[in-house]
Amino acid sequence: MNAPIFDFLKKYDESGALRLHMPGHKGKGKLGVENLDLTEISGADSLFDANGIIAESEQNASSLFGVETFYSTEGSSLAIRAMLYLCLQYAKSKGQKPFILAGRNAHKSFISGLALLDFKVKWLYSSKKDGYLSCKITASKIDKTLSKLKQKPVAVYLTSPDYLGNILDISSISKVCKKHGVLLLVDCAHGSYLRFLKESKFPTDLGADMCCSSAHKTLPVLTGGAYLHVGEKLLKDENCDVKFALSLFASTSPSYLIMASLDLLNLELNGDYRQRLEQTVNRVKKLKKSLKNAGYKAFSNEPLKLTLLTKEYGYLGVELSKILEDNGVFCEFSDKDFLVMMFTENSRKVDFERIEKVLLSIPKKPKIYERPPEITRLKNKISIRKATLSNSQILPVEKCEGRVLCSLNLSCPPAVQIVCVGEVITKKAIEVLRYYDIKKCKVLK
Questions:
Q1: Segment 135-153, tens digit of pLDDT
Q2: Quick one: which of 440, 375, 443 has its CA closest to 135?
Q3: Does pLDDT of 408 surpass 80?
Q4: Are the beta carbons of 100 and 110 closer than 8 angstroms?
């Protein structure tokens, strides 16, 4: 396997060519990578009309993932919106309306995609105790929901793994979706590596029709490098134009540095990556066991993620995070209840020893029994699209009872919404928002 994008960039840089084209740095700069940062010059191909080195590189990725795979240099956010567009076209070809069944813990890019494409959504919820970041939906629950619906959705949309590291039973869920004749779309942004486990847990291997995955989250790729994976069923549809779907929401200036990192990743995945991944998975298991013996409680089942229920150890997540930062350890995410740490095959043995030493040096305190207020199901007042495009005003959260939310109000991370756009903010919702330190909301004017 070769790396055609990187090889082209390197060859062009070494040729001494006079750069009378973009970018403006002309191959020179303090970052030290400007020499490989190009644009669509002759021979460089074009991401959304690929028939050269980019097409060749994407085919390399497709062979590794076992499904048609397309590059995104704008993360899974771009891939999610493209998935929704392809789903919309599929619905039209079947005479269906743009209606989708989705797990409530969807990323904000999914909600913005619904607004842009005017999708109607019905939310799937799990236990109230799961909080807003997790949505442990079962195949049985989806089966019952689909059986009761008068209007059949075009697709079911789920997040797996979720931000806290919970993986759904995609195999069983895909069988239910096929039984009811609906597509299965999966936001697998945190799980690119799942394809390369001893036994693949990657959504398209388990029956999903489409999924996105952010290479940059769990694989050695520059930030923004991601994939859209499209199954055979959709590719056979005459309305399935994946490149157009991506280009509809993307910049016309995709980063060649990011594409080159995706390109070079193919070589790594084709090498000894699986062996190194297995070694890392075993190290995470060993760390979880050691921490459990010391009184810590882990939350998730994702192989490369360690999520601690910190109140069980006597600390708020943000308190434990601050202690770790004071010891030079920076985690992915923390709030009052959780601390999230992510590992990859590039996490060294000494890194595991270091985090274990720091965590075990923290004295255990009495358990904190405070729990977040339960998130109740909220009433939808107007469509997501209409709310998003309406005139709005920003108010202190305390003054938002009875008002309609019209803007996504949680940043990334975790970018999962407590109140969705178009919903009426209740007194109980305000309690939840305040618990998570949300101080203002943009509401319908």
A1: 889 999 999 999 999 999 9
A2: 375
A3: no
A4: no
Identify which of 252, 257, 244, 260 has the alpha carbon closest to the alpha carbon of residue 81: 244
For residue 418, the domain's CATH number is 3.90.105.10
Task: Please provide residue 285's backbone torsions phi and psi, each rounded to the nearest 5 degrees.
Answer: -60, -45
Question: Which region holds residue 181: left if phi is over 0, alpha if psi is between -120 and 50, else beta?
Answer: left
| Residue 400 domain boundaries | 384-444
Which H or E element spans position 110? helix 108-117
> Among 242, 269, 296, which residue terminates a domain?
269
Distance CA 315, CA 354 (A): 20
Rounded Cα distance, 4 and 32, in Å: 21
How far is 201 from 195, CA to CA, in rounded Å?
Answer: 6
How many other C-beta atoms are found inside a 10 Å radius of the C-beta of residue 444? 19
Inside any domain, residue 131: yes
Measure the CA dihedral 430/432/436/438, to 10°: -20
**Distance between CA 385 and CA 406 in Å, rounded?**
9
- 85 plus 229 within the same structural domain: yes
Q: Are 131 and 158 within 8 A, CB to CB?
A: no
Q: Cα angle at 217 between 213 and 221, to 5 degrees? A: 95
For 168-197, what is the HEC assignment?
Answer: CCHHHHHHHHHHHCCEEEEECCCCHHHHHC
Pair (436, 328) in one structural domain: no
Of 71, 106, 418, 78, nearest in space to 256 by CA:
71
pLDDT, tens digit (0-9, with 9 covering 90-100), for 286-325:
999 999 999 999 988 999 999 999 999 999 999 999 999 9
pLDDT at 236: 87
The CATH number covering residue 223 comes to 3.40.640.10
Q: Please state the pTM of the whole predicted model.
A: 0.95
Task: DSSP letter for 281, please.
Answer: H
Distance CA(222)–CA(116), nearest Å, equals 28
Domain total for the chain?
3
Q: Same domain, yes or no, for 211 and 243?
A: yes
**Alpha carbon distances (Å) from 153 to 236, 256, 404:** 20, 38, 25
SS3 18: coil
Distance CA 203, CA 321 (A): 32
411 close to 439: Cβ distance less than 8 angstroms: no
Domain-terminating residue out of 297, 328, 361: 361
